[in-house]
Amino acid sequence: MILLLPLPVFASNVPEEPVGSVNDPEPAQSGPAGNDPATAEALSDLYAVVDELRSELAERDETEPPAERPTQPETTADRSAPRLMATDYQLDTGFLSPGKQGKLTVVLTNTNQKRAVANLKLTLTDDTGDLLQEGMNTRYVGALGAGKSYTLEVVLFARHNAAVGRHNLTLTADYEDGDFQSYSSSDTLYVDVRQTAELSFSGAELPARVVEGDTVTVTLTLMNTGKAQLSNCKADFDVKGLPGGGTAFGGDLAPGESKTVSANLRAQPEKPGAVKGTVTVTYEDEYGQTYTKKAEVSTVIEKKVEVAAAPAQEQKKALPWWLYGGAGLLLGCGAAFGVTYAVFAAKQRKQDELRL
To answer: Rounded CA gap, 186 and 226, in Å?
Structure first.
């Protein structure tokens, strides 16, 4: 309302001399202007408007606090580049054998504690091509918060002709930050391919019955049924009541080779009866990893029965009389037969000589 007043009209009728200050209680006027009723009325209205405006400004100063000067906000955003790293990984089978599979688990972490990343593309590759993946070799992740981790699970399969040894897998991550800036990082993962270490054995059996105090020989046949060289092959016997024997060593076994090992066990139970135990076969592969196989065995230990020897005087009893008589008769008949045969033979020779 104040700015719309027709001030130019008033100004045309105002003399050049100053009319007074707004702080004066009454304006100072000069000759002709003070005698013009229209000019006097316009000036009066102007003074009233100024007084009204001054009152409003004074009231506003009392009711409203002075506005504070705006300050520039502090910049606390972390502008460092977010970085993704593989912080842990493992294969559930420990290693892969040709023709076998296992699950690889990789933990991928956003190491930046203030900046999230988005549009992640994860790619896992094997340069040799011996290790295949179930499904696609790429994964997509929408976002990964600051300091957060993502677990990647991949099923790996080793070809039947996969090279034995360590394989290097490369995990590549392509991603963006909040400003749509693109980044890329990569990590190397190691997976071993080994030949299968397998061993079988037979003959781990005890006799059905064993007499207390007797020694039993247990014989086992060890065979390398895998494709890896085996070493430190041995069998340990742990049967209650049959101590001794301990460990039977088989040494090294080439693929397809077999060996026979044995142990002597002596029956010495606390009391006769049924006993049980185990035969534990252990062996190592080319990497020093130990494998174990067990078999249960059992038998019955019987108490030994002592047989008493016959007294010496009972062994020297006299023979019955008829046995002596029969023996004499047989001797007499034999002598008579011998004499008769001798006479007959002499006569026969004499007749033969006369014919000649």
So the answer is: 37
The residue whose two tokens read 């045309």 is 12
**Structural element, H or E, at residue 163:** none
Are the beta carbons of 223 and 257 closer than 8 angstroms? yes
**Cα–Cα distance between 300 and 273 in angstroms, integer?**
5
> pTM for the complete prediction?
0.53
Angle subtended at Cα 157 by Cα 154 and Cα 163, rounded to the nearest 5 degrees: 125
Question: Count of CB atoms within 10 A of residue 29's CB?
Answer: 17
- How far is it between the farthest Cα atoms of the chain? 226
Q: How far apart are CA 108 and CA 123, in angstroms?
A: 12
- The DSSP H or E segment spanning 18 is none
Give per-residue pLDDT as tens, 167-212.
999 999 999 998 899 999 999 999 999 998 999 999 888 888 988 8
The gap from C-alpha 17 to its chain's centroid, in whole angstroms, comes to: 102
* Cβ neighbours around 144 below 10 Å, total: 21
